[in-house]
């Protein structure tokens, strides 16, 4: 198309003075007949995804100013009416920011935004559903838990499951211990060893006293024969102690408490 003709069409377009910056902008003039075919295809795709529990990918292409953002605005409004969550993932503007951090941040921001044509935020629906179902969702931060970081990096053999019995060396304040406690459930058990008295105090106050499947052991991991609270053999020994002889400590604990064909995980520290 001739460039001059294209510019004339742009000047006549309904979006010239009606710029949409985000899918949640208010005061947007929506020309419903513009991109009607593309919009109908997306809505049909959403119905298909919902009924078949599948997934689809659409790519919107067009010249700047052709109405792509308006179309996304309209899709966001109708997607949420159909009980879909519309998430706007912004481009990664910083190489220092991990991709999953950007996606998580954009997802939360999207859920906290309310489309001007709707009465409530998507996050309100999610919280209401969680409360109704009695479900708790917890954030497992890979920057605070090495086990979470290993999962993010593709840990293939995850040994913790319902009913698992665990000996955890180096419980610290209990961040990772609490998540393992959730996974093994009420029929599982976590023997959590911590020697530092100040850290152990926080662990007892914030975690262990509130979870019946955690058995705190205030003892030096170098002296496994003095764990009077541990009974029977465990399925997993998890080692998270920053000591030069941590491998020796791990082996001594495994020799005493790890059952045959059990597994042990050790976090290595590189200085």
| Count of the domains | 2
Given the helix and strand composition, which structural class is it? alpha/beta
What do the pLDDT scores average to? Answer: 80
H/E element order: HHHHHHEHEHEEHE
State the share of residues found in helices, binned by percent: 25-40%
Main β sheet profile: 5 strands, parallel
Uncertain spans: none
* Percent in strands: 5-15%
Strand order of the largest sheet: 3-2-1-4-5
Number of strands: 5
Characterise this structure.
- This protein has 271 residues and is α/β, with parallel strands linked by helices.
- The protein has 2 domains: 131 residues, no CATH class; 121 residues, Rossmann fold (3-Layer(aba) Sandwich).
- A 5-stranded parallel sheet has the order 3-2-1-4-5, with helices on both faces.
List the helices and strands and how they pair.
Layout: H1 3-12, H2 36-52, H3 68-81, H4 99-111, H5 122-133, H6 146-152, E1 165-169, H7 175-184, E2 189-193, H8 197-206, E3 214-217, E4 234-239, H9 246-257, E5 258-266
Parallel strand pairs: 1-2, 1-4, 2-3, 4-5
Could you provide a short overview of the structure?
The chain is α/β, with parallel strands linked by helices and 271 residues long.
Keywords:
single chain, 271 residues, alpha/beta, Rossmann fold, 2 domains, 5 strands
């Amino acid at each position: 198309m001739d460039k001059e003709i294209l510019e004339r069409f742009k000047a006549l377009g309904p979006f010239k003075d009606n710029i949409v910056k985000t899918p949640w902008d208010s005061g947007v003039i929506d020309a419903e007949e513009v991109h009607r075919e593309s919009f109908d295809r997306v809505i049909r795709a959403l119905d298909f995804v919902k009924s078949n529990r599948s997934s689809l990918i659409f790519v919107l292409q067009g010249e700047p100013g052709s109405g792509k953002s308006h179309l996304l605005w309209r899709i966001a409004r109708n997607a949420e009416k159909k009980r879909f969550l519309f998430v706007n993932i912004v481009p990664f503007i910083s190489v220092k920011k991990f991709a999953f951090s950007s996606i998580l941040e954009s997802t939360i921001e999207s859920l906290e935004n309310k489309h001007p044509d709707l009465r409530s935020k998507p996050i309100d629906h999610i919280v209401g559903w969680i409360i109704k179902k009695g479900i708790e969702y917890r954030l497992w931060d890979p920057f605070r838990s090495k086990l979470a970081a290993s999962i993010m990096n593709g840990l293939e053999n995850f040994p913790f499951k319902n009913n698992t019995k665990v000996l955890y060396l180096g419980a610290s304040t209990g961040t990772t211990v609490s998540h393992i406690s959730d996974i093994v459930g009420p029929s599982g058990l976590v023997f959590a060893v911590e020697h530092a008295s100040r850290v152990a105090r926080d662990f007892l106050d914030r975690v262990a006293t509130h979870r019946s499947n955690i058995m705190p052991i205030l003892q030096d991991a170098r002296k496994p024969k003095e764990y009077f609270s541990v009974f029977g053999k465990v399925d997993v020994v998890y080692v998270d102690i920053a000591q030069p002889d941590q491998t020796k400590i791990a082996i001594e604990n495994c020799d005493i408490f790890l059952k045959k064909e059990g597994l042990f995980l050790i976090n290595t520290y590189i200085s």
